[in-house]
Amino acid sequence: MTMITPAGVDNEELYRLHATELTRYATGLVGPFDAAGVVIEAYLRAAKSGSWHQVVNRRAYLYKTVLSVADDRQRRTRARRLGKVESAAPKSVPASNVDVDVLKAVNRLSVQQRAAVFLTYWEDLTPEAVAGRMGISVGSVKRHLTQARKSLDGMLS
Amino acid sequence: MNGDAGRKMKDLMARIVDMAPEAPPFPEETTTLSPAPPRRSMRPVLVFAAAAGAVLLVALPLLLLGGEDGADPAATTVPTPVTTVPATPTTTVTEPVGATLPVTIYLTQEPENPLQGNPALVPVATLGRASEGEPASLVALEALLDPALTPPPGLEDLIPDEAVVLDVTEDGDTITVDMNRAFLAGSGTGLLGDITMLNQLIYTATQGNPEAGVIFTLEGQAPGPYGSDGLLLDTAFTRDYFRSDHLNSVIVTTPVGPESTELAGVARVFEATVSLEIRDAAGEVVDTQFTEVTCGSGCWGQYRFTLEPALLKPGGVVRVFWHSPEDGEPTDVVTIPIPEAEDGLWDLTP
């Protein structure tokens, strides 16, 4: 799946064009409750960066920034017990949409592993393309996938 | 991987995407932005993000448990910006008095197979020009950033010639490195090169305190976006910050010279075994060893080799690596050239 931002779109158009897919990506990285916040923070961080106006592939840039923001949050945040999740879920995410089994499974992965799995299995990207999207080497992508599969072994039905 | 596991992964991703909330509305704040602000100011970003995410953050993220090394993540519910500019510098640079000081600088080495490995860091001993009162980390960084620096064979320096270290202050486990504006351009070789350049600086700056974190400032202020991808340098970078995804799985932290008696470092290797071989100037293997790393597969541990100086001939190399379980081939090889000088110091500015 290749999608390049059309030339000439302004910031708002660009955002509307990619917000849905970025929100899905962020959901894969931090879960449904924080996804919207990550997308907004990532967009603002990107749009305010000094190099934003020079970026050719802004979609790819936004993907990297979403990963960076998600990674920052992981480094700075301690997760609460999953048992508290359902009662704490915000109204913006209907409780019926929360698949706790899936969250427990993904919870075993690092943000980098989640990104590699999402881009590989949801976006169907090649390891080379995943590496480019994440800004890491192909070897690291393969390592993340291997570790993710190992961590999830036995949890997926 | 087999098809069944792939199908399960796809199913997992589909179930995650099913949980995705609606995309948040366009943040109108950005319509007033200038196209290229000269200095980064994270405060409006964080304020807005905190406001926009306030409702969402009432419930805590589910998926933010520990990193690859099993360390516990930090304990906050909302990301807290890290202050990057210390209030009071603790070290003042004085005029040079002409003394020299042996220091270790970190250069880089491309992986033998770029599709499988990450760049390696290689420690190299050289003489730095020290001024009275300067911390060794500043002397080392100045040696690393010398525009006339010529790396030994097989090694590279990714730092642009125009980059200059303006000051270094050390305060406990925090080292603040103040750079000039040319630093922000990064390596000019893409994101991985930019991060490798940061690793060169981080490892060189922390040679006296490997547990320290490095804060980068730009002319005394918080730096703007760094490198080709606009990385935000808004935290203290320790040696392990980038190593899992952006560095070779074998890291050597002791320089090698003709009189060296040990070689040490950290590694994350299969079955916790790392190997070493010494080759002479003709390429003949004159010594092979292996040793255990203090942590098994999937985690970083320390290792240490004892060297026989009589085997370390100028023009030769020391290679450190691990053996692939698939084909037994040396993997993540770090090749360290042996200098001619008996004291092990390279003259890098001939």
Helix percent of chain B reads: 10-25%
How does the major sheet of chain B shape up?
4 strands, antiparallel
Number of distinct helices of chain A: 8
Give the topology string of chain A: H per helix, E per strand.
HHHHHHHH
What spatial form of chain B do the alpha-carbon principal axes imply?
globular
Mean pLDDT figure of chain B:
79
Strand content of chain A: under 5%
As residue ranges, the low-confidence spans of chain B are: 31-98
The count of helical stretches of chain B stands at 5
Number of DSSP strand runs of chain B: 12
Q: What overall geometry of chain A do the principal axes of the alpha carbons give?
A: globular
Total number of beta strands of chain A: 0
Distance between the termini of chain A: 27 Å
Detail the topology: elements first, then pairings.
The complex is a heterodimer of chains A (about 160) and B (about 350).
Chain A: H1 11-30, H2 35-48, H3 58-76, H4 85-88, H5 100-106, H6 111-121, H7 127-134, H8 138-152
Helix pairs in contact in A: 1-2, 1-3, 1-6, 2-3, 6-7, 6-8, 7-8
Chain B: H1 3-18, H2 42-52, E1 96-109, E2 120-131, H3 136-144, E3 165-171, E4 174-179, H4 191-205, E5 213-218, H5 243-246, E6 250-252, E7 262-267, E8 273-279, E9 285-292, E10 301-306, E11 317-323, E12 330-337
Parallel strand pairs in B: 4-5
Antiparallel strand pairs in B: 1-2, 3-4, 6-7, 7-10, 8-9, 8-11, 11-12
